[in-house]
Amino acid sequence: MTDVASKGPQAGDDRAILTNRQGHPVYDNQNQRTVGARGPATLENYQFLEKISHFDRERIPERVVHARGFVAYGEFEATGKWGDEPIERYTRAKLFNTAGKKTDLAIRFSTVIGGRDSSEAARDPRGFAVKFYTEDGNWDIVGNNLAVFFIRDAIKFPDVIHSLKPDPITFRQEPARIFDFMSQTPEAMHMLVNLFSPRGIPADYRHMQGFGVNTYKWVNAEGETHLVKYHWIPKQGVKSLTADDAANIQANDLGHATKDLYEAIESGNYPQWDLYVQLMSDDEHPELDFDPLDDTKVWPENEFEPKLVGTMTLNRNVDDHHNENEQSAFGTGVLVDGMDFSDDKMLVGRTFSYSDTQRYRVGPNYLQLPINSAKNAKVHTNQRGGQMSYGVDLGAGQNPHVNYEPSITGGLREAQYPTHDEQGPVITGRLTRKRIPRTNDYKQAGQRYQLMEQWEKDDLVKNFVENIGQAVREVQERMVWHFLLVDDELGLRVGEGLGISPDDVRHLEPLQSQTLTDEDRERLSNLG
Ligand code: HEM
Predict the structure, then answer these.
(1) Complex confidence, ipTM
(2) What residue's CA is closest to ligand 1, atom 27?
(3) Any idea where the Catalase core domain is (predicted)?
């Protein structure tokens, strides 16, 4: 007689029965099937094989960046306006058009560099990715908490990330490698001044801002376009940590930000962010001393006032971390009618990269998963097959034999273009590889420093000195040279901490990879 015979449901136990994925009841989940009590095991042990081989495949590759993150759900409520003006003047995107209109959304907050179990108190940009499930399909804003980025051309992304990721041999994040790269990347100064200030370690996910960073377009019913940037402002306020605060937190808990968000939502303390939009006419804006498509720049708020368009409330946690977090997929290509891409050279590179990595990381049918599917829109494609395909998205009355287009025997048809002519700018140019003309790498970095409170400036200088101090002398000197061009005081203070005076760096020539403004040249000639 086997052990199984002695078990069986106890009277009054109404818990569901454990089965395998074939729907077969599991009678014994403690013992493999063996020849005799001491083995050997048999190969026809289907229940055991299914269980262990599924376990062997439990992990999918973690994201190449932003591996650690946490998803929550909520809704977006529109004001129907851009500030005081009807929003239809600028965009026909339906989710914005009516005051009080609500749209379901998912959000994923993340760190960038660490692996999926790494510390959430690291000095690192934070990801702020929102997926709106609109009636016209999904819209993603995939942003960060610092408003700008290290680089302005997508071709440099693998390099900047390699410099920030662990050393390929020691597998430690090495400030010497980071500043080796950054010292040769003048456009990174604005991001570095943010990242090494307390803003570089947000207190948690609820108390940080989010920014779309890249420049997009809005399109109205007449087809007129405007350039826009998105800003999420937390109603909870903004809180940041110094390196010492962060060290104390991560000594006890690597996941404090996830815990904070999860518990706030579980207890009904729903966090909220207002969405503000900056907007400018769709042209090159030669009057500005920066390029509006440059993601290392912010748009001055006194000239381009951010105006409210709605509020996001997070009110639900995930049911399963793997299904809804690990398999979630956000991307900059995911826009709805009423929105468009700008020619921002980062944006176009990102737009390729996200869905490319997701087809590899999650699989070619990643958009069939509930977290990623356009659940509030009608989806009918002629896509079939591929790993893990399930369900066929037939349209009402569609002939199921017709998975091609065009067809006159009951297939899907193309949509009508919205009734307008394209009115974006006409662009002509020679194919080339060139920097944008208005790089202006230092001015906004200096303004950012000048706006900081004294304790933030002190923390920034301390962090720079500690980290850059680990790099070789030439890198330290080049960083001091950059900082003197950013702001005299910042350059002098970091220099002092590293034992480098303006006289020590006066001989340095501008990098080949930079274009200096007249103002930069003037500062250069006055160095020291
Ligand atoms: C994630 C590429 C710049 C924000 C990712 C991923 C890739 C990637 C491959 C992993 C996606 C996945 O596995 O699902 C790039 C490239 C960039 C770039 C090639 C530049 C050319 C940026 C910038 C921002 C940003 C400028 C911020 C504005 C994010 C966020 C995620 C992410 C928030 C995580 C999305 C999530 O939570 O799943 N990026 N990225 N990235 N990136 Fe970027």
Answers:
(1) 0.96
(2) 143
(3) 19-413
Q: Using CA positions, which residue lies closest to atom 5 of ligand 1?
A: 65
Check 66, 226, 231, 256 and give the catalytic one: 66
Our CA angle for 92, 97, 100, nearest 5°, is 165
Q: Is 39 left (phi over 0), alpha (psi -120 to 50) or beta?
A: left
CA of 127 to the centre of ligand 1 (A): 8
Cα dist from 52 to 29, 354, 372, whole Å: 12, 32, 28
Query: Of 153, 144, 151, nearest to 229 (Cα)?
Result: 144
Active site residue 248: no
CA distance linking residue 47 with residue 396, whole number of Å: 40
User: Please, which pLDDT band fits residue 344 given cuts at 50, 70 and 90?
Assistant: very high
Percent of the chain with pLDDT strictly greater than 70: 97
User: Which of the listed residues 59, 64, 65, 194 should we mutate to test ligand 1's pocket, taking the one with most ligand atoms within 8 A of CB?
Assistant: 65
CB neighbour list of residue 417: distance below 8 Å, 6 or more residues apart: none
| Tens digits of residue pLDDT in 43-98 | 899 999 999 999 999 999 999 999 999 999 999 999 999 999 999 999 999 999 99
How confident is the model at residue 526, as a pLDDT? 86
